[in-house]
# Entry
Amino acid sequence: MTQYQIIEGDETAYRDGSIKLHGPDGFAGMRRAGRVAAEILDDLVTFIRPGVTTAAVDDRVRSLMLAAGAVPATLGYRGYGFSSCISINHVVCHGMPSERALKEGDIVNVDVTALLDGWHGDSSRMYLVGDVPLKARRLVEVTYECLMIGIEQARPGNRLGDIGAAIQAHAERQRYGVVRDFCGHGLGRLFHDAPEVIHAARAGTGPELRPGMFFTIEPMINLGRPHVKLLSDGWTAVTRDKSLSAQFEHSVGITEDGCEIFTLSPRGLHAPPYA
Ligand code: MF3
Ligand code: CO
Ligand code: CO
# Structure
């Protein structure tokens, strides 16, 4: 039984398993937090190039976040020490910034979450470093399509499983693997909240989508099999078969007739090639 809870005013949100339904104040807060995340991802389009370390990218994310009056929600989150997650090639998610320099041919995901006035804007995009082989570019393109095809299903009357079903069908049509071990999530005043948004699902299953629900959709799609393993650092998730992995993420809010994407790129830099 899914419980829904109407959120009014600025009451404290608890992780009690309920799905929160937000009003106009929530949409306004998420719009501002989402915009900060999106503008930072826009900025990285020219910053990311061969030779730049992922630590330098993370420093830039932190400076831009603070300059915008926001705080990186990942900093200190469950002991995580960085302002972004940076996942290169076969890293599926939660890659930690380091002195590793980006090199020609890498595909890289940067995932940022802006905490602004108590609201979380969570988004990630892929970047191509220099010339990237066609197979990898194709994976990135299809992964973006998976995100947007999922978002098309985000409207009242549908169920959460309709999103995952659409994503899974599109990915598997190209024989790609949909990661099961990590999901999208409800968010708002909380960074990670109910519901879990699974990216491989059965149509018509799961909680029904209602106006005021806020959640992320963030499919991780592998060139090979869906299975992942966690490295000994406790964070970095990689594909078991060492195949390339890609991911895009948006934060969305269900409206009366569809959804609003809070983290849409103001400059139209939605997916590579960004030129
Ligand atoms: N931004 C990630 C997400 O999409 C979460 C990162 S949590 C961290 O949910 F601790 F790894 F940073
Ligand atoms: Co997320
Ligand atoms: Co994220």
The chain has a mean pLDDT of 98. The helical segments are 24-47, 54-67, 134-152, 160-173. The first strand starts at residue 4 and ends at 6.
